[in-house]
Amino acid sequence: FLNIQEGMHTVLNCTYQERTLFNFHWFRQDPGRRLVSLTLIQSSQKEQGDKYFKELLGKEKFYSVWNITASHLGDSATYFCALR
């Protein structure tokens, strides 16, 4: 559970132990709704994103971060990460 003020920057971290990485996904689920894919980053990429969201993949340290640079009420959801 993470509670932040509107307009604040936050970072969601996801760590994993799998050494063989093909695809890494971030998903979001609003209450009572289905999962929605936010992004897919492939093993050949290191980062992707735009001015609002940025995903970084650290292959050596086995982590991914999802940055929300200026949070707003619409960001309220459950976030998931998945590795394939």
From TrEMBL:
It holds the Pfam family V-set. Transmembrane segments: none annotated. The keyword Signal applies. GO terms for biological process: adaptive immune response. InterPro entries: Ig-like_dom (IPR007110), Ig-like_dom_sf (IPR036179), Ig-like_fold (IPR013783), Ig_V-set (IPR013106), TCR_variable_domain (IPR051006). Keywords: Adaptive immunity, Immunity, Immunoglobulin domain, Receptor, Signal, T cell receptor. One of its GO terms (cellular component) is T cell receptor complex. GO terms for molecular function: peptide antigen binding. Residues 1-84 form the Ig-like domain. The keyword Signal applies. It comes from the Eukaryota. Alpha-beta TR is a heterodimer composed of an alpha and beta chain; disulfide-linked. The alpha-beta TR is associated with the transmembrane signaling CD3 coreceptor proteins to form the TR-CD3 (TcR or TCR). The assembly of alpha-beta TR heterodimers with CD3 occurs in the endoplasmic reticulum where a single alpha-beta TR heterodimer associates with one CD3D-CD3E heterodimer, one CD3G-CD3E heterodimer and one CD247 homodimer forming a stable octameric structure. CD3D-CD3E and CD3G-CD3E heterodimers preferentially associate with TR alpha and TR beta chains, respectively. This is Ig-like domain-containing protein.
